[in-house]
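Posted in: Protein Modeling Q&A

I'm a second-year student putting together a small comparison for a lab meeting, and my supervisor asked me to include a predicted structure for DUF11 domain-containing protein. I've never done this before, so apologies if this is the wrong subforum. The sequence is pasted below exactly as I got it from our records. If anyone can share the structure token output, I'd also love a short note on what stands out.
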Amino acid sequence: MSLIQRTAIPIIVLLAVVGVGVAIFTASSPFASGQETDSCDTGVGIGIKTRNESGQNVASVRHGDVINYGVTLSLLEPEPGTTYCNFGGGTLTITLPSGDEVVVAGSEDTPAIETVSTGNPFFSTTVNYAVNQNDGVQSNPDDLENDNVELTVRARYSGGHTVSSTGTLLGAEVEASGSNLVRMVAPSVDIVISPSVVQDAAVPDSQTVYQGQVASFNVVITNTGGFELSNIAVASLEDAEAGEVSIADCARAADSFEALAVGSSTAAYTCGTTTETSFVQRVQVTADGTATDTAGGAIAIQVSNDDTTTVFYGTVAVGITITAQSPVVRLEQNGTFDITVTTPTATGLDNVTVAVRIDGPGEGQSTDSVDCSKSYQTVAADAEVEPYACSEAMFQGINTITATVSGTVPGTETVLQATDSTQVEAITPGLSIAITPGEQTIRSGATAQLTFTITNGASDLTGVTVIDPDPSNTIGLDLQICDTALDAIGDLAANQEISIICTTAILAEETSYEAVAVGTASDNSTEPSDTANALVKILSPSTAIGLAYEESDTQIIRLVVQTLKVTETNDGDSPLSDVTVTMDPTGVVLTRDSKQYVSGDANNDAILDPGETWEWRVVTVAVAGDVVLLPANAETLFISATGYGVDQLGGEVTIPGDVDEYGEVNIPIVAN
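Accepted answer (user: helix_wrangler)
Welcome! Here is the predicted structure, written out as tokens:
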């Protein structure tokens, strides 16, 4: 059999052997299967196993990994019609990826290779090896960027001999070599940016913040490749169209981190920012590494990666309502209110306070309610504070009650505040009516005029009317005309006053009038009312004149000298002014200021009051001046007196209107 024929192994068998990391080499020998023969082949199988420290086969490694190599020598399974020779002795050497050679069998310090036959393989001792990233790039410098860096270990068997059936080494004819590859994990780096506090396990890569809160992120960088990394830098990126924002606090310079060993991670650092919109935060890590090629030159390694997290911005608000239990109360009663505070639906609040203030209608009428104010250290999110009622005294009039709630968003200085108000009217219902003049005097046959003044108190009134207690006018006055209907006044505002003028029918005798003003208070709880009266007197002025003479012994030839006593008495019901008495035929005019006045004006006010009598003395002489010409046969001297005056209504008391204003006397004449 020729050498070519002996080495012609079917391709399918070769691929199967190579697939398990075994390389096959052959040499000629005159022996086969341990028996001496004229011709046999040596089929040496050599296999390399790469295992980790746990004994598991590995196909990929990283810088710093400790792996071990073991080599197996075996006699191949012969093909039909082929005889392989046993073999033994020789030296088995492993060439490591670093280029160092290690003799694992056949030296003075390593086990000898015994006879290798079918079913009797030789297992070498294992060689531990610490992976160095330089090993890979030295042999594969162009494949670094293609993630295709491989480490090669080689095994070489040399100096072996075929073995006779008696175990005799027959000749130095046996050798073989093989190799095995493991892939270096390509350089890579990972960065993770995530919320400092995961709020929702179902959405771990997002968070929600509210007014004033900081969106905080943890950033962790991990060397996920097979090479050491250094010069690690982090940048915060921004793509406005993608909703990204750049946060300077998240970036880190290249000198912020030490070299990052394979599989190691940086301690998490926290960055953050406040926001008023939702956004995406994207950070990118860039790392360098170096390896040395076979010529000692540096080969640069650079990797990068990025990660994102989402921040949802939520607006929150606190709410408060205050409701008056009654919109109108009496002044002596307290106003009562119900207060309800509602906190935000997504965040609690700290330092929550409720303050209540009452403002009255007047200047300086304000007060802070101590009983209505509340405080809470913390209120949970979406927790409606139990409604509570409070009560406070009111000022007269319309009061505005304002309730304000405030609280701080946890972890921030942002204060949320809300205000609500309501009004309560404190009333003092009051209504008064006056009729003016309360008493008046008119002449009989005239009409009287009355003014009704209706005044409201400090509270609005509705349905105000003036009631005539004697609508049929069986007694009292008959009101004929009013400029406003007394029974349809309607509403009166607080402190409002109206006047209504009415005229009576023609009156002939004294009479009085009573009116009642009524109205309903705005709290519908009372009907204030008031009553007023007026009297109309019918005037009947009158005076009485007295005239008398005093007897005199003086009588001179038909001339009469006589002293007359003249009086005027007010026997009516009206004071009289401008009182005058005239005498006829003498033509004497008497007033209070005439020198003939004697007495009677008690008040000395020139007013002849009812029941008062004034007196004059008049000397009457039938001579020139006060001359009365008498006929020759005259026996008496006839003298009359007439009284005049002006009553309180401006009317005159005189003949013929008043019957008692006239007096007369006959003075007897004695002949000479």
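A couple of things worth pointing out for your meeting: The first helix runs from residue 3 to 6. The radius of gyration is 69 Å.
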